[in-house]
Amino acid sequence: MLRQLNIPLSSLLLALCLLVPAGSAANPQSNYTESQLPVFELHSGFWINLHHTLYYEARRRKTLLSRDASASKSAAPGAKSVLAGKGLTDTEQRAWDDAVAFYILNYADKDLLFTTELVQLKDQLGDFEDCDELSGRKRKFCDAGLPANLTQVLEAAAPVYRSRLWLEHDQANRRWILQVAPLVREQGVGLSERLADIYQTRWPHEKIRVDVVAYANWAGAYTTVDPLRVTISSLDPRNEGPQALEVLFHEGSHGIAEPVQAAIIRECRQRDKPIPRDLWHALVFYTTGEVIRTVLTSASPNRGDKRTGASGNGYNTYAFREGLYQRGWKNYLELLQRFWQPYLDGKATFDDAIARMVSSL
Ligand SMILES: [Zn+2]
Question: Ligand 1 centroid to 273 CA: how many Å?
Answer without folding.
Answer: 24
